[in-house]
Design a protein that fits this description.
Blueprint (H helix, E strand, L loop, with lengths): L4 H19 L5 H7 L3 H19 L3 H10 L2 H28 L1 H15 L1 H5 L6 H17 L12 H11 L10 H8 L2 H10 L2 H28 L1 H14 L23 H31 L1
Amino acid sequence: MRSSPPTLLRSFLAGLLMGTADVVPGVSGGTMALVVGIYEQLVAAIHQVFQAFVLAARGRLADAWRHFRRIPWSFLLPLGLGIATAILSAARLILHLLATYPMQMRGLFFGLIAGSLLLPWLRLRQRTLREGLLVLGGAIFAFLLVGIPPRVVPDPALWQVFGAAAIAICAMILPGVSGAFLLLVLGLYEPTLRALTEYQLFYLLIFALGAATGLGLFSRLLHYLIRHHHDATMAVLVGLMAGSLRALWPWMDEMRRLQWPDTSDPVGSVLLLALVGLGAVGVLTWWERRRTFHSASR
């Protein structure tokens, strides 16, 4: 079934948002997928691709081909193109902005993520004590995780590149946990950005292989959890998003310890950009709910 140009454009724009988010430490591409309403569709599509590869690896080529034909390529291809475009074009810009305006940039993304917390919560079919405890547990886990000090591995071995990519890519479809931040913790954030900006093709190939492996395995688990434990999964995602706000607090030292602003800090511009982030999520949420309402009423 062919997709209309607006649908293809929507997938491409969603990919741009996800790719931009994945470059920024503390922001998750999965969060952006939730914001624009494609999260469950994305996880299911990635799971289908992985299943097709598994069938092909087992020698069941006819079954694999049938599986490939059922994959929603009209959704995945423009989405992937948007992600790649954002990552390749945003790497230099994001590095410059983070280095030049670190507090303001964290304020902007703090507002974006804080405004997104309502989205997975609204997807719950029921909101009981169990869901509340899962939110709390996810928040505590993410809060402690993002407090780990960053490090740098100046010349990583290929197995380190492969392993770090396999771990970090999971954050692309896990709201609240940033792939860029996981690379920071593992020490491969700066080497990977340098490889992107300097077009180190062999490094990028190993990274891509690790990312494909990690994404395929993790999407299988996440697909199962969403299908069989939807509310529990969404509750944990709310907690992960809430706890990860620590990584975006505008005022912290080199060891990621939280601080209060002093009189010399640009508090006004940070608050303004946080409000801009909140407003942007509000517009996206309104647009998505309006689109969902019109789709359901047809």
